[in-house]
Amino acid sequence: MSTELPPYYFRVRENGAFVFRVDTENRMRRIEMDQIAVVNIRNGEVKPHGDRALTDEDLRVIRAWMKERTETVAQRQIDDILRTVDHLNLTTHWAQTKATDDQLEQISDSLLLAMHDLRSVLTRKKADRVLAAQAAAGNSDD
Predict the structure, then answer these.
(1) Do residues 29 and 7 touch, judged by C-beta distance below 8 A?
(2) Exposure class string for 45-55: b at 16+ Cβ within 10 A, else e
(3) Model confidence pLDDT, tens digit, residues 7-64
(4) Rg (Cα) of the chain, in Å, rounded?
(5) Which of these, 10, 20, 14, 22, lies nearest to 64 by C-alpha position?
C-alpha cells in the first residue's frame, strides 16, 4: 500500500461524484477530506461546493476524472451486455435440458416479452444503421 495519498478523492454516485481535496499536512497528520465540488457526468456539469472557487488544477483533475469515468462506465455497459448474451445461452440450455414444466410456465411469458422487445429494438436500430450507411455511400458517389 502506498504511503502517499492522492490529492483528490472522488466519491462515486450514480451519475457522477462528490469531489474532495485530500489533506494530510495538518498538525495531527490526520486525513482530512474537504468537499470542493459535485460532478454530473450526464450533463458535464461541475458545481463548486458551497462558496468555493475551483482552481485551474481542480478543474483539470476533475475533467480528466470525468473522461476516464465515462470510458469506464461505457466499458462496463458493454461487458454487462456480453454477460447477458452468456446468460441467455445458459438459460436456453437450462430450458432445453433441466427446466420443469412448472418452471417454464413461471418464466416463459416475461422472458418471451423481454426478448421480443429486445429483438424489435435491435432490428430497428440495425435497419437505421444500414439505411444511414447506404445514404452515406450514395452521397459519396456524387
Answers:
(1) no
(2) ebeeeeeeebe
(3) 999 999 999 999 999 987 776 778 899 999 999 999 999 999 999 999 999 999 999 9
(4) 24
(5) 10
Give the H/E segment covering residue 22: strand 16-23
Find residue 9's DSSP bridge partners. Answer: 20
- Nearest-angstrom CA–CA distance, 142 and 125: 26
Are the beta carbons of 24 and 51 closer than 8 angstroms?
Answer: no
Burial 64-88 (b: 16+ CB within 10 A, else e): ebbeebeeeeeeeeeeeeeeeeeee
Domain coordinates of the chain in residue numbers? 1-98, 101-136
